[in-house]
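Quick log. Single chain, no ligands specified.
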Amino acid sequence: MSWFEKIVPSMIKTKKKQRSKSVPEGVWVTCDECKAQLYRAELERNLHVCNQCNHHMRIGARYRLENFFDKGTIKEYFNNLISTDPLKFRDTKKYKDRLIESKKKVRRK
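-> predicted structure:
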């Protein structure tokens, strides 16, 4: 211990900086309507409805069906169907290219 540390009272000494713990990504969600910061777990318990302004946030179709039906009662039929282009339709893009693009985006058939 140096002579200076002995002279300076402990209240005046500066504390070492503690590492700030960062919040993991995706823990908080901002409401589109009222801009309130909402805790994601609480928002999911509230079925994606803002508890500040009652704004209903967008949810996916699968998530909606999972919450609508009882657990274990859902049975998906015809999940192997694939869209095709028998008419060779063409707009600004080929329909076949649009199908490929949407499959990549949604990651489903």
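Helices lie at 3-7, 40-45, 61-68, 95-106.
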